[in-house]
From TrEMBL:
Domain of life: Eukaryota
Subunit-structure text: Homotrimer.
CDD domains cross-referenced by the UniProt entry: crotonase-like
Compartments where located: Mitochondrion matrix
GO cellular component terms given for this protein: mitochondrial matrix
Alphabetical keyword list: Acetylation, Fatty acid metabolism, Isomerase, Lipid metabolism, Mitochondrion, Transit peptide
Pathway(s) where this gene product acts: Lipid metabolism; fatty acid beta-oxidation
GO molecular function, one term: delta(3)-delta(2)-enoyl-CoA isomerase activity
Keyword Nucleotide-binding: no
SUPFAM superfamilies from the UniProt entry: ClpP/crotonase
Organism for this UniProt entry: Culex quinquefasciatus (Southern house mosquito)
Identification of the protein by name: Enoyl-CoA delta isomerase 1, mitochondrial
Length: 283
């Protein structure tokens, strides 16, 4: 039984007892809390591909605040798209950018990473579609990943001629062996679901979104008999080195992002990548 849509984007909505409040489907992030389990399903909802622009990142950040303030028992992150979990960062935020917005964009991505990677409540990604780059990062911030068959996932930044920030790399290293992470990051590998399972980038394979949600729920259920405080302190202790590293370097990290992305060579690369994407989608 779904109790409520906690928050959809920035608007707090009322309790309905049914699946969605009237306008929730139009929002960037839809949160539904299960009455029985207390688990929140957070659905990314920015068609066509959930590319992460400033507005979507802000909505995710606010959602994570809500869940923390409401002492959530657990979160399942998924997508409303039939074939894409998230296409990663919105390339339009990086192509011919306005520097002020770009800084806010990056700072908001950092916020999302801090809140998700360091969340006190347990988190699972139900990856029901392709999940390149920033999409993969969101799933890596979660503690467990269940992925539907026949999609791709990975940190493919080098394929775009860009370098994934160290905290992206740390998130991947937290899930996979150092050796596999190094190979994946330097090659910019986009793994198929089965390949991702083999290297430990995902934990389970699902046959459908429903199956992914069921498996994600089963993972969250494992913590029923574990003290939430002991659980979250253990998680945060294990992740604290990565978190402190970015906390200590937030401003430099933003400056580096702005510097790297505004390089003419990178701008040219992004332009060509965008053209290739558009040509593909026009076919
Ligand atoms: C120091 C700098 C560090 C920066 C770190 C960067 C991290 C990132 O996340 S960069 C983004 C990397 N993302 C990708 O490489 C994914 C690109 N997209 C795809 O490969 C595919 O779109 C897909 C597999 C995710 C989905 O394929 P499909 O369902 O076939 O959809 P289309 O390719 O037809 O795309 C529909 C529509 O969306 C536009 N689009 C796709 N991805 C992005 C994106 N990341 N940003 C902005 N726009 C994107 C695509 O161009 C199509 O647009 P229209 O032609 O206008 O319909």
């Amino acid at each position: 039984m779904l109790r409520s849509v906690l928050r959809a984007s920035t608007t707090r909505l009322g309790v309905t007892g049914s699946r969605f409040c009237s306008s929730a489907a139009d929002k960037l992030v839809i949160t539904e809390v299960d009455d029985k389990t207390g688990y929140a399903t957070v659905t990314l909802n920015r068609p066509p591909v959930n590319s992460l622009n400033l507005e979507l990142l802000t909505a995710i950040s606010e959602t994570l605040d809500d869940l923390q303030n409401n002492k959530s028992r657990g979160m399942i992150l998924t997508s409303s798209s039939k074939s894409v979990f998230s296409a990663g960062l919105d390339i339009m935020e990086m192509y011919k950018p306005k520097v002020d917005r770009m800084k806010e964009f990056w700072s908001t991505l950092q916020d999302v990473w801090f809140k998700l990677y360091g969340s006190p409540f347990p988190t699972v990604a139900a990856i029901n579609g392709h999940s390149p780059a920033g999409g993969c990062l969101l799933s890596l911030c979660c503690e467990y990943r269940v992925m539907c068959q026949n999609y791709t996932i990975g940190l493919n930044e080098t394929r775009l001629g860009i370098v994934a920030p160290t905290w992206f790399m740390a998130s991947m290293r937290n899930a996979m062996s150092r050796r596999d992470a190094e190979m994946a990051l330097t090659l910019g590998t986009l793994f198929t679901t089965d390949e991702a399972l083999k290297v430990g980038l995902v934990d389970e394979v699902a046959t459908s979104k429903e199956d992914a949600i069921a498996k994600a729920t089963a993972f969250l259920d494992k913590f029923k008999k574990i003290s939430p405080q002991a659980r979250s302190m253990t998680k945060q202790a294990l992740r604290s080195k990565d978190i402190m590293e970015l906390e200590d370097n937030r401003t430099q990290d933003i400056d580096l992002f702005v510097y790297a992305v505004t390089q003419p060579k990178v701008q040219k690369g992004l332009e060509m990548y965008l053209e290739a994407l558009k040509a593909k989608s026009a076919k």
